[in-house]
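Recall the central idea of this unit: under ordinary conditions, the amino acid sequence of a chain determines the structure it adopts. In this exercise we apply that idea directly, starting from the sequence alone.
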Amino acid sequence: MAMTTWFFEPGHSAAEFRARHMMVALVRGQLKNMHGRLEVDPDAPETARVQATVDATHVYTGEPQRDAHLRSADFFDVEHHPTWTFTGTDVRQMSGTEFRVIGDLTVRGVTRSVCFDVTYLGQWNTPWWEDGRNLGPRRRAGFTATTRINRHDFGVSWNDVVDRGGVVVSDEIDVVVDVEAVLEPGGTAPGEAR
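Accordingly, the structure predicted from this sequence is:
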């Protein structure tokens, strides 16, 4: 099988982060408008490469004041660092649908190596609508990736103290990335005739 190239469908791909708030609750935020590319040989997935970019300027937590604070220099500093990026080149297959992807995550201009645990959700031929016309079928594949990072490693260090030495925001942040990837035109997906 030859190398296949897939692009991330921005309307159906996004990143979510989750932090402990005020020592008791979990608060989630979303980063949409994700663009990316996956190059993979289905017969040799360990040779895969992935690149992703997400727009941090439109962070959404459901609370406008908190969203504005997250965009500020206290947290994401989107005026100077409007995007987060990930480039993964070290892929290890753990089972038929489970992978570990190690690569460089850049947040707020700081790059660190992180490991994502990735679950392959399968693929399907689907419609492809452009200008009111179905130009399909197009092959789609789904993935979910998770990791935990320490926000201080990326220079996201604002905090405040609460009762008994507690803090407003946890150091550790859980990240979940959902990807719907579409096979580039002319590509052949596993199981399809050439």
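The CA atoms of residues 28 and 72 lie 17 Å apart.
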